[in-house]
Each structure stands twice: as C-alpha cells, then as structure tokens.
Design brief:
Blueprint lengths: L18 H55 L12 E4 L1 E2 L2 E2 L4 E3 L2 E4 L6 E6 L8 E3 L10 E3 L11 E5 L5 E5 L2 E2 L5 E3 L26 E6 L2 E7 L5 E5 L4 E6 L2 E10 L9 E3 L10 H4 L2 E11 L41 E9 L1 H5 L3
Parallel strand pairs: 1-10
Antiparallel strand pairs: 1-4, 2-3, 5-6, 6-14, 7-13, 8-12, 9-10, 9-13, 11-12, 14-15, 15-16, 17-18, 17-19, 19-20
C-alpha cells in the first residue's frame, strides 16, 4: 500500500475593511452627497424662480385684464355730455360722502409712486336711456316723477342732473305700478331722510331735469395696497376686495384729443390741469394708457457684497415711457418684475361723440 503525502496550508484568517478604507469611503460618500445636494439646491432654486415668475405673469395678466374690462365700459350711463364732470353728492347711512365724486367715465389720481384709477359706468341694460323729470322735485321729496319707468327696478342707483346744479345719487326703493314715478325713501342707506343734505338748495330739481339709470352702479377705484396687492374699492357696496397678489405699481395716462375731435394726439399724466380736469377737458379724454407692474413672490438672495442684483434697474412703464418708481420698498432689487401695458379706448365716450 502506497501513501501519498500532502501538505495542507492553513486557512487565511478573514479580514474586514481597515480604518483607512472606511475613512476613504466615507469621504467619497460625503463628497458625492455634497454634489448631489448642491445640484438639488440649484435645481430647486431655479424651479422656485421659474414658479414665482409664472405667478407674477399670471397676477399681472389678471390685473390688466380686470382693469381693461372695466375701463372699456367707462362712461356707459352718462347719457348727456353736458353732465360730464358734474359734482355728484351722495349720503350713506345719513352721512354725506366727502369729497363728492365727479360724474366721469374714468378718473386717474397721480400718486407719489403708484397711480389709482377710478372707473364709473352703469350696470343696467337700459342705462343708455335718459329719463326726464316731469314734476318739480323739491329737496324734501322722496318721489321722482319721470317720463318713463322702462327698465327701472328696485335697488337701482339713479343720478339726477340739471345744468348749473350739483348732481344727486339716490337708490330706488319702489317703482310705482301706476304713474311713472320712483320712490327713494330712507329705507335705503343711500337715501337720507328728506334728502335735505344732498339735494340742490333751495328748490331741488326743476321740471325738465334729467335722470340717469346706473342699475347696480359700477364705481370702482383700483389701487395698490400697503402689502403690494391690487385692490378695488367698490363705492356702491363700500367694500374693498383684493384682486391680485404682488401687483406693486399702476401707471396710467389720459389719451387726449383736440376739442371737437375723436383722434388722440397727446398723452398726459394726471398732473397740472389734468389733476382736476375741467368739464371741457373731460370731454377730450378718449382713451387711457395703463401699465401694471407685477413682481415675483420669491425674494432672491443678496450677492457677496450684501446687495441684491436680481433687478439692477427699474422696469419701464411702456415703450419710451418713464421708469417705474419702486423705491418705496428698500428691497425692490431682490425681486423679478413683469410689466403689462395696453391702450384702452373709451368706447362709450367715442360713440357719444363727446
């Protein structure tokens, strides 16, 4: 029998990672994680910037569309050119509303930074029909006799006009079933008892004076509030509503035509003689140029010098127009802005050939 000798090598002991290998792996992992997080942070920053810019675009378009829609209707219901600019007195809950409002299609107030725009028009489908007062209306009366009550309804706002006198705003409380007459009793907060404090003294309105039907009355003032939002004050409801966020500025100008013409040949700010235009000048206003400035909701970071460079210079209101003043906000350069501008013809003024 033969035996074969065989040498058996002892098994190598099992070995793990050394401390050096673990530290190298951790360092590589940390560097990889750092790169991933940096890329993710940059991506998220770009996404937030894109999203906030899209929000600014949406808010600006909504704001401009809302303003344009109302301005196009401005002046509907002012059915006699002689009434343009009439000082209109009104009372709410027994208190006269001061200052008295003007009977105008549109009124721009030039602000230190942002302008305000007031638009007035009738919400009645019969607003173009002028009624004639057929019986003298003394200040203490709460009944108006007119030549036709067609299209008149309870809660309609009406404005009485007679050349040489102030106008008066009332609200219809009853349309008589028999004679063509309207009641404006103090059951409405817009009708003071007897009307003595808002009707012309001493005789009120004479036979032949006019009555305009404004329906539910659209009299809105658009402005930028302290929180940089577009808001609208509704005179008929005495309520203020926020319409769009991050609308930081409104700029507006009158488009003026020569007397007797319908063609605009000049654009003017609401300053000087146009801050409180005369009735003759009001008739010359045929269009409005308006710009709405919206900003992104995201405040960008400042640079290494501690100064924001997101928007180095103020945006322009319209081509060839002035830069928009945003300095009322010390951080204005930390935001992105979009400007939307348009020209809106006052079609009711043009159709009336005022």
């Amino acid at each position: 029998m033969r035996y074969t000798s065989r040498t058996v090598c002892p098994a190598k002991p099992a070995r793990g990672f050394s401390l050096v290998e673990i530290m190298v792996g951790l360092a590589i992992g940390l560097l990889t994680m750092l790169v991933i997080m940096q890329v993710f942070a940059d991506y998220e920053g770009q996404k937030r910037t894109t999203t906030s810019s899209a929000d600014a675009q949406e808010n600006g378009q909504i704001a401009l569309l809302t303003l344009e829609r109302d301005i196009r209707m401005g002046g509907y219901g002012i059915a006699n050119s002689a009434a343009m600019g009439c000082v209109t007195r009104s009372s709410y809950n027994g208190v006269e509303q001061l200052p008295s409002r003007l009977l105008v299609p549109i009124q721009i107030t030039n602000g230190a930074s942002s302008d305000t725009v007031r638009v007035l028009y009738s919400a009645s489908s019969h607003g173009a029909i002028t009624r004639i007062i057929t019986v003298e209306h003394p200040p203490q009366s709460s009944v108006i006799f007119i030549n036709s009550k067609l299209g008149m309804a309870v809660d309609d706002f009406v404005i009485a006009f007679e050349p040489g006198k102030t106008c008066t705003l009332m609200q219809v409380t009853l349309v008589d079933n028999g004679l063509p007459k309207l009641h404006h009793q103090s059951t409405s907060p817009w009708n003071p008892p007897g009307g003595q404090n808002i009707f012309p003294k001493p005789n009120g309105y004479a036979k032949g004076a006019l009555l305009f039907n404004f329906g539910s009355l659209v009299d809105r003032t658009y402005r930028v509030d302290a929180n940089k939002n577009l808001e609208a004050f509704d005179f008929s409801t005495q309520a203020t509503e926020t319409l769009a966020d991050n609308v930081v500025n409104i700029q507006a100008q009158y488009g003026v035509a020569p007397a007797g013409s319908q063609s605009v040949n000049e654009w003017v700010d609401a300053t000087g003689v146009w801050a409180a235009p005369t009735p003759a000048n009001i008739k010359r206003i045929k269009a409005v140029r308006i710009a709405v400035v919206a900003r992104s909701s995201l405040r960008e970071k400042a640079g290494v010098d501690g100064v924001c460079h997101t928007t180095p210079s103020a945006p322009i209101s319209w081509p060839g127009g002035p830069a928009v003043d945003l300095t009322d906000d010390p951080d204005w350069q930390c935001y992105r802005y979009k400007v939307y501008e348009t020209i809106v013809p006052l079609r009711n003024v043009l159709w009336a050939n005022l």
